[in-house]
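Batch manifest, entry 17 of 40.
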Amino acid sequence: MIHRLKEIRKGLGFNQTDFAKHLGITQTAYSMIENGNRPLADKYVKIICSVFNVNEKWFLNGEGDMFLASPYEKEFAEIFGRLAPETQQFLMLMARELLITQQKLLDAKGKEE
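Output type: structure tokens
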């Protein structure tokens, strides 16, 4: 489970200090947990799964996907399903354009760094 803890943290793009802050512990305490020198309390498993939408079954025993579908995905799917086909087609076109724009912004940001 400890290797999955590190995988979650890295997957979310956090360093140990920032991840520890979300758990309400120090970086040192978190580092000891991640290195296997201290057990991860059940309450932190619950916090991680709840706050970061992590699949608890995956976290505990590696079964399934790391993350559950985000609440935004669920809401989007519900709304999308209630739209007329023409509106769905238009929304998909807009989503593709947003994706292209996002990639251009990320590429420009990457060149600045």
